[in-house]
Amino acid sequence: MPLYTAPVSNSASEAAGFDTSIPNVARVYDYLLGGKDNFAADRQFAGHLLAAYPFVAWIARQNRAFVGRAVRYCADKGVGQFLDIGSGLPTMDNVHEVARRVIPDAAVVYVDNDPVAFTHANALLATSDGIAALWGDAREPRKILAEVSDRGLIDLNRPLVVLLTAILHFIPDEDDPAGIIEVFRDAMPSGSYLVLSHGTHDPVPAEPAPAAGMFRGASSPLITRSRQDIAAMLAGLELVEPGLATVTRWRPVHPPQPQDRAYLYAAVGHQA
Q1: Is 56-270 a domain of CATH 1.10.10.10?
Q2: Which residue ranges in the chain fall short of pLDDT 50?
Q3: Alpha carbon distance 122, 127 (integer Å)
């Protein structure tokens, strides 16, 4: 199958402030989840991705389900502040909706660097006290922390939950994804949690190359990593049981099928 090639940008999209001709990973994820906040290039890219990997929409749904379970777990532990990095477009069971079923006044800050994701989060999610949307880049964790602190959105002296779900496999090694986690970890007071999911090639090691080739035409590269590499990123945190597991096997509501290969590892790390 030929690699996906992004179409040439047009002046209308550039005038809008962003290039809709380049597939954006947040909007592709929205499409895979059944959302409508995406453009033709995103849908075309998703179609190529689904043709090559028919299970990719199922993986997206499994990741979303994991996020809900992890947020509920942290809220049940009494943590009422959530910082969702690379939050993407609003969808079903957003972080604040899950958290506020347990803690009605939970504070949630959504952070994304995609203009469409930010605009929709600001319009649809940041509509009540304690919910905010920031335009920020996961590769600049110190800047994000400074802004949420300076604006009084998150109290960094109290336990919080940092979510980095399905985002770090779009961060190349040269941008130091482990260092990103380290910055957030060091800013998290005792009692905090870090929620992570990350793409892996462990089930079928030969598959990453063609998938990575397809993502060269998208807004971000795809860098899957091994279980060992992902575990190393979580150094310094105490992993909640069952530790680092596939998203389908992290405290599932229903027992996963033996053949489930989610291609995403998941963990919730606790700051002791």
Answers
A1: no
A2: 1-17
A3: 8
